[in-house]
Amino acid sequence: LELPKTPLANELILKKKTQDHYPLSLLLCISCGHLQLKEIIPPNRLFRKYLYVSGTSSVFIKHFENAASHIVKKTNIDKKDLIIEIGSNDGTLLKKFQYLGFNNTLGVDPANKIANIANKNGVETIPEFFNESVSNKILSSKGKARVILANNVFAHSSDLIGITNAIYSLLDEKGYFIFEVSYLLDVIEKLLFDTIYHEHLSYHALKPLVPFFKKNGLHLFDVERINTHGGSIRCYVSKNKRNKSARLNKLLKIEETKKLFSLKIYKEFSKRIQKHGNELKNKISYLKKENKRICGFGAPAKLTTLMYTFNLRGSDFEFIIDDSKYKQGLLTPGLHIPIVSSNKLYEDDIEVCVVFAWNFFKSIIKSHSKWKINGKLFINPLKSN
Questions:
Q1: CB hemisphere CA count around 96 (13 angstroms)
Q2: Tens of pLDDT, residues 299-328
């Protein structure tokens, strides 16, 4: 599946300039069913100056609070046990474990500024990419981990075998590797094509993951479906062999029933994207002819894929609102739409707001109900409106 070339989806800039565009080509392995991008961008360029900060989203703060409590109960870990998070960002999740009394935590994240924020907030964080070298250093200084976490980062690496080997060597014999990723089944069924961008190299389903972990000495034994990012899975992996849970077996059967690993489903996916894009573009064109002033809400990475795939014009949007102070004052990749605070929504006579951060659609509408009451229109770009 070929999507249009785009700039790097998180490469927000201060001043207008020409930005490199890269292909987005999806490849399906006909042997195991794994789906991944063909193009690999050097990770230093993608993640060293990363701007996404978990702690700016009240939805994710609550999600991590619930996740920490749930994981503590499910794993029955001791408060002295070492908990490591790969791609720990500003330490929001590890902070939740600390609130529960689990203070032996360690984060690993390559984004230097964000890792510094975490350290200042009391979450020890190594500002590096997680690999076997970092794993060995942690092993020497802190010993083995009872729980290793990775939320929305197991899709980011071009060396999943290397990361998995590093996890294996660092994990206690009775430990757990627990990770969350966007679920390919949801991506296809809910048309979440805009989650396809260069940071996301892998698009995970369960069928390929089970033999992958087995080949690397680990066992995927349980899974939970969660609602983050439009639809995700939380996977539980151990060193000790365990029977697959009923819900894991059920989802494996559903993947086969839905023919998730056939070429046909991606041809249909492409047609559905095109059809929906035409509908949204026509709607925006109609609103512009009616002299409606339009803005966007949210400058996540998926904004870039959506706008380029639907061939939307930057000139159609007066600005993009984002609650992250790290993004305000910058321009969106390629189309160079200014990013501002939500105050701008009320200061200007804006009548239509397209919510590019659609995974927070309900919370955004709730937070800005006063604006909506005055006859204003919020649009979810992935829904028929």
A1: 20
A2: 999 999 999 999 999 999 999 999 989 899
